[in-house]
C-alpha cells in the first residue's frame, strides 16, 4: 500500500510539472523586437505662390576679363618698398612700388660727370685755331708770288709759302674732324646720362592709369628681373559687371532685368540690373556677355561672382528645394508626403515634376497645396528604416 501511494505521488508530480511547463510556454509574453529609429526630418507645407525664374551666370566685378594690368620694373633690382595695399585705389602716375636706388643713383651721377667732361672737350674743340693762320698763309703766298714775278725773290720762297698754306689747310681739316668727334662724344655722353637718369627714375613704379590694386606678387627685399610682374591693377569697378551666360539663355534676358550677384568667398550679395546683352554668341564657348549696372564696393573690385538673372515670375505650387529627393535606384523625382493610414501617419513617396527651382524653392506639379511634406532630411527616408 505504501509503494502504490508513492508511485501515485510521483505520477501526479510529473503531470503537474508538465502542465506548468506547457502553461509557461503558451502564456509567455513575446519579447518585442527593438524598434528601428525613424530618421529626423523637418516638415514643410506645399503652398501656392510666385517664384522668380532665373538664369545662372558667372563673371567678375569690374571690367571684362583681360582688363587687369600687371606692372613690372624695367630694370632688375631689389624691391625697396611696396607703397600700396590690396583693394587700394590709385591714380595715374602714383608711385606704387620702388627699387633700391643706390646703384642707379651712382650710375646716374657718373654718367652726368662724363657728359659734362665731354661737353667741355667739345667746346674746346670748337675753338677756331686755323682760320687766322690760313689767312696769313694765303697773304704770304700771294706776296711771294708777286716778288718772284718781279724778280725780287727766289722761287723757293714761293714754294715754301705754298707748303705752309697746305700744312695749315690740313691742320684745319684735322681740327674740323676733331670738332665733329668731340660733338659726337658729347652727344653720346648726354644720351648715356639721360639713360642713367631714366633708369634712376624708373626705380619708382607708377600706375599707368587710375584703378584698384587687385594683386601683389612680390614683397620688399625680393630681387626681381625686368618684366617680372610686381603687382596688378584693374579699372575701378564703379558700376560695371560683365557676366557670361549660356547662348540659349541670352535670348531670355532683357535690359532692366534684376540681377543678384553672389561674391565668391564672401557673405555679401549685391543687386543690379541688366544694362545690355551681347547680340552675338561666342562660337568657341557658346556663351554670351551680359553687362550689369550695380553699385560695387572698391574692395570687391575684380572679385569673381555667381549671379542669378531674374527673367520672369511664375505662379504655382511651391515647396522647399531640400524637400526634393532623386531616387538613385529608379531615377524618379520624389517628395515624401505625410499621410494618415488608419490611426497612424507616415511619410509616403509621391512622384512630382519640377517646373523650375532656384537656390531655396521649387515650383512643382503632382502635389496639392496644403500637403505636409518632409523637408530637410527627406533623403534619409529612402533608407529601409524610413516610413516611405
Characterization of the model:
There is one protein chain. The chain is of the alpha+beta class. The protein folds into four domains: 43-49 and 316-382, conserved putative lor/sdh protein from methanococcus maripaludis s2 fold (Beta Barrel), CATH 2.40.420; 54-65 and 235-313, Elongation Factor Tu (Ef-tu), domain 3, CATH 2.40.30; 69-95 and 206-234, RNA polymerase II/Efflux pump adaptor protein, barrel-sandwich hybrid domain (OB fold (Dihydrolipoamide Acetyltransferase, E2P)); 101-202. The protein contains five helices and 21 strands. Helix 2 (102-125) packs antiparallel against helix 4 (155-201) and helix 3 (131-149) runs antiparallel to helix 4. The radius of gyration is 50 Å and the shape is rod-shaped. The model is unreliable at 29-37 (pLDDT under 50).
Biggest beta sheet summary: 6 strands, antiparallel, barrel
Q: Give the mean pLDDT.
A: 83
- Tell me the overall shape: rod-shaped
Assembly form of the protein = single chain
Number of domains: 4
Low-pLDDT residue spans = 29-37
- Helix amount: 25-40%
Number of helices: 5
- N-to-C CA distance: 73 Å
Over the alpha carbons, how many angstroms does the gyration radius reach? 50 Å
H/E topology pattern: HEEEEEEHHHEEEEEHEEEEEEEEEE
Amino acid at each position: 500500500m505504501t509503494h502504490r501511494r508513492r508511485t501515485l505521488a510521483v505520477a501526479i508530480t510529473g503531470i503537474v510539472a508538465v502542465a506548468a511547463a506547457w502553461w509557461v510556454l503558451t502564456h509567455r509574453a513575446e519579447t518585442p523586437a527593438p524598434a528601428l529609429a525613424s530618421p529626423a526630418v523637418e516638415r514643410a507645407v506645399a503652398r501656392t505662390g510666385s517664384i522668380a525664374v532665373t538664369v545662372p551666370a558667372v563673371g567678375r566685378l569690374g571690367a571684362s576679363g583681360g582688363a587687369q594690368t600687371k606692372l613690372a620694373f624695367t630694370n632688375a633690382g631689389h624691391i625697396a618698398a611696396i607703397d600700396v595695399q590690396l583693394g587700394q585705389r590709385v591714380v595715374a602716375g602714383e608711385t606704387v612700388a620702388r627699387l633700391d636706388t643706390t646703384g642707379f643713383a651712382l650710375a646716374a651721377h657718373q654718367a652726368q660727370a662724363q657728359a659734362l667732361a665731354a661737353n667741355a672737350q667739345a667746346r674746346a674743340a670748337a675753338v677756331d685755331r686755323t682760320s687766322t693762320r690760313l689767312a696769313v698763309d694765303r697773304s704770304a703766298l700771294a706776296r711771294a708770288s708777286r716778288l718772284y714775278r718781279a724778280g725780287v725773290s727766289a722761287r723757293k720762297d714761293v714754294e715754301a709759302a705754298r707748303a705752309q698754306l697746305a700744312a695749315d689747310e690740313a691742320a684745319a681739316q684735322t681740327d674740323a674732324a676733331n670738332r665733329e668727334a668731340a660733338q659726337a662724344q658729347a652727344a653720346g655722353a648726354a644720351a648715356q646720362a639721360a639713360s642713367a637718369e631714366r633708369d634712376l627714375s624708373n626705380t619708382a613704379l607708377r600706375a599707368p592709369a587710375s584703378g584698384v590694386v587687385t594683386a601683389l606678387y612680390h614683397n620688399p627685399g625680393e630681387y626681381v628681373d625686368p618684366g617680372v610682374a610686381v603687382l596688378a591693377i584693374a579699372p575701378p569697378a564703379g558700376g560695371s559687371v560683365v557676366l557670361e551666360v549660356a547662348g540659349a539663355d541670352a535670348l531670355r534676358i532683357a535690359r532692366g532685368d534684376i540681377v543678384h550677384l553672389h561674391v565668391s568667398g564672401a557673405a555679401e550679395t549685391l543687386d543690379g540690373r541688366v544694362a545690355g546683352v551681347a547680340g552675338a554668341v561666342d562660337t568657341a564657348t557658346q556663351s554670351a556677355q551680359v553687362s550689369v549696372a550695380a553699385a560695387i564696393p572698391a574692395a570687391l573690385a575684380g572679385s569673381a561672382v555667381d549671379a542669378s538673372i531674374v527673367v520672369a515670375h511664375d505662379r504655382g505650387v511651391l515647396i522647399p528645394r531640400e524637400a526634393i529627393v532623386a531616387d538613385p535606384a529608379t531615377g524618379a523625382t520624389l517628395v515624401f508626403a505625410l499621410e494618415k493610414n488608419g490611426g497612424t501617419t507616415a511619410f509616403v513617396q509621391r512622384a512630382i515634376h519640377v517646373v523650375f527651382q532656384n537656390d531655396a524653392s521649387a515650383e512643382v506639379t503632382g502635389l496639392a497645396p496644403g500637403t505636409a511634406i518632409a523637408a530637410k532630411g527627406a533623403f534619409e527616408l529612402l533608407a529601409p528604416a524610413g516610413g516611405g
